Amino acid sequence: MLGALIIVFREVLEAGLIVGIVLAATQGVAGRGRWIWIGIGAGVLGAAVVAAFAGVISEAFQGSGQELFNASVLGVAVVMLMWHNAWMARHGREIAAELRQVGADVSDGAKPLTALAVVIGLAVLREGSEVVLFLYGIMASGTSGMSLLSGGVLGIAAGAAFTGLTYFGLLAIPSRYIFAVTSWLIALLAAGMAAQSVQFLNNGGILVVLDRTVWDTSWLLSEGSLFGHLLHTLVGYTERPTQLQLVAYLGTLAAMYVLMRVARHQPRERLAV
Amino acid sequence: MRSFVVVLGLLALVSLVPAGARAADYTITIKDHRFTPAEIKVPANKRVVITVVNEDRTPEEFESHEMKVEKVIPGKSKGTVRIGPLKPGRYPFVGEFHEETAKGTVIAE
């Protein structure tokens, strides 16, 4: 039962961290609750569908379908996070100011919410499909299934609790700084996803360049440990990055920085985000 | 001239594909949540293709941080896992859904 709890917790943790950060990042934006629930709901539904068609996805594109699928999901999430950060660079200051006046309503809020709902949906979909497959395996194997299943359910609950912890932890940050902090977190999150995405393309045999391992820090912090796993999700820690992963990571950070600078300085009329 | 450049570009793209299109070099079978063989030797500094056959009814996730792969292999099916180039050394892998029994090692030399 403990084994099942840990496996499920590990998957839910990844999605949970992302949801927690996104929740904190949209603090004070009107109508966010609805979008976040839409994101989670669509993600859970999608996870079940992906799990049901795991065989088909896996066999598509000469056996590279799963890699292509994961790489695309991560790629879309990176773009959405960039969009969000650009939008926040533009409007974050007003929202932070209004947060301090009780009852203030932020208008024009619906736009980055669709992007973030997509990010949440994709995170839940990706990690959730593994949870569904794992739990399905437990139920299919019958014996001792009940205790494993309750372990799995507890794992989901623990992961959800961790989401809450992330969210309220971030909320403890004074509202003056919260958007600066969440923007950084989202930038690192996106960079880590980009690095993961190109590795999937490499595993799929689709993008086979710069595949030498640059360094190995597994002796210092294993990706398999809980802390290593946490850092992997949060900032994209990889114990043996390839050259291409480093390029993707740094490239995403640089693109994010430039985009936020541009968004901050463009006159509002011209920026259609 | 222009079409020549286009053709060159396409050729460059196609040259990236063979690594993916090549036939599998190794086969590992999952049965009763165990890998057979549990240890395979592969050449170092080369890309290697492993076909993982899952004979169990339940899905398994072939995973290794050391080799940077994670791939779900649904029950009663097979999947292609591409690894490398690896430096010489031992690289453990597990079946994440049954980690107590599903364990193995790739030795690059």
Tell me briefly what this model is.
The complex is a heterodimer of chains A (273) and B (109). With 273 residues, chain A is mainly α. Chain A is globular.
Structural write-up:
The complex is a heterodimer of chains A (273) and B (109). Chain A is an all-alpha fold. Chain A has one domain. Helix content of chain A is 77%, strand content 0%. Chain A is built from 9 helices and no strands. In chain A, helix 1 runs antiparallel to helix 5. Chain A is globular. The relative contact order of chain A is 0.18. Chain B is an alpha+beta fold and 109 residues long. In chain B, 17% of the residues lie in helices and 46% in strands. Chain B has 2 helices and 9 strands. In chain B, the strands form 2 sheets. Chain B has a 5-stranded mixed sheet, with no helix packed on it. Chain B has a 4-stranded mixed sheet with strand order 2-1-4-7, with no helix packed on it. Chain B is globular, with a radius of gyration of 17 Å. Classes of the chains: A mainly alpha (273), B alpha+beta (109). At the A-B interface, helix 3, helix 5 and helix 7 of A face helix 2, strand 6 and strand 7 of B.
Figure out the total of helices of chain A. 9
Listing every helix as H and every strand as E from the N terminus to the C terminus, the arrangement of chain A reads HHHHHHHHH
The CATH architecture of chain B can be named as: Sandwich
CATH class identity of chain B: Mainly Beta
Total strands of chain B: the figure is: 9
- Gyration radius from CA atoms of chain A, angstroms: 19 Å
**In one word, what is the shape of chain A?**
globular
Q: What is the N-to-C succession of helices and strands of chain B?
A: HHEEEEEEEEE
Indicate the structural class of chain B. Answer: alpha+beta
CATH topology of chain B: Immunoglobulin-like
Q: Indicate the multimeric state.
A: heterodimer
